[in-house]
Each structure stands twice: as C-alpha cells, then as structure tokens.
Amino acid sequence: MKNAPVFVDAYEANLTLHRALAGDASPVGARACALGSDLVDAVAFALKGWDTREELDAADALLARLRLAVRLLGDLGTLPRPQQLSVAERLDCVGRQLGGWRRSLGMPR
C-alpha cells in the first residue's frame, strides 16, 4: 500500500495538514484533520478490496469536503499558504487518481 500513488498522495496531504495545524484548536482545523484521516482510511480500505466501490464513493465525498475545508483554512489564514498549496496539489492528484480508478471499474462520475 505504501507504493500505491493514491495512498501516498492522500497520506502526505493528511500529514501536512496535521503538522501545519498542530496546536490549532479551531473547529475548521479539527474538521480538516479528521477529513484527511478519513480520506486516508477510505483509500486504504478500497486498496485492500473492502467494499471497493463504496470506499471509492466515500473517498470522493471526503475529498470534496476536504478541499473546501483547506480553502477555508487558507482564507482564514489558519493554514499557511505554502502548506495550503502543497495540500491542494496532493488532493488534486488524489482526485485524478480516484477518477481514473472509478472509470476503470465502470463507475459513474
């Protein structure tokens, strides 16, 4: 799993968020960290073959929520711009990979 690019990108985005928001007690920061962790879980479960389609749907929904949270954190000045850009780039990669995976399984967008 460590070699699966989608897992690596989701994990690194989550790690960056947790490091950047360590000590931040805001509800938005806590939500972003929780969403990041849940995204990593959904990707890991899909890679393991546990209800792959359901986990891909969950990962897609979590990704959309996380992107919004990251944008809000950036706009609030809570997440420094370099970390915001890094996380956003990783999340874009995750989105492209999830989309390709879904298409390969014949899942609707």
Task: Please write out the topology.
Layout: H1 5-20, H2 27-48, H3 52-76, H4 81-104
3D architecture notes:
This protein has helices spanning about 5-20, 25-50, 50-75, 80-105. It has a single domain, classed as de novo design (two linked rop proteins) (Up-down Bundle), CATH 1.20.1440. It is built from 4 helices and no strands. The protein is about 80% helix and about 0% strand. The protein has about 110 residues and is mostly helical. The chain is elongated, with a radius of gyration of 14 Å.
Which key phrases capture this entry?
about 110 residues; single chain; mainly alpha; elongated; de novo design (two linked rop proteins); about 0% strand
Largest sheet: none
CATH architecture: Up-down Bundle
Residue-averaged pLDDT = 94
Question: Terminal Cα separation, in Å?
Answer: 24 Å
Number of helices: 4
| Proportion of residues in helical segments | over 70%
Shape: elongated
The poorly predicted ranges are none
SSE pattern, N- to C-terminal = HHHH
Strand content: under 5%
Q: Helix/strand/pairing class, anyone? A: mainly alpha
What is the highest CATH level, the class? Mainly Alpha
Please name the fourth-level CATH homologous superfamily.
23S rRNA-intervening sequence
The radius of gyration over CA amounts to: 14 Å
Number of domains: 1
Number of extended strands: 0
CATH topology: de novo design (two linked rop proteins)
Please sum up the structure shown.
With 109 residues, this protein is mostly helical. It has helices spanning 5-20, 27-48, 52-76, 81-104.
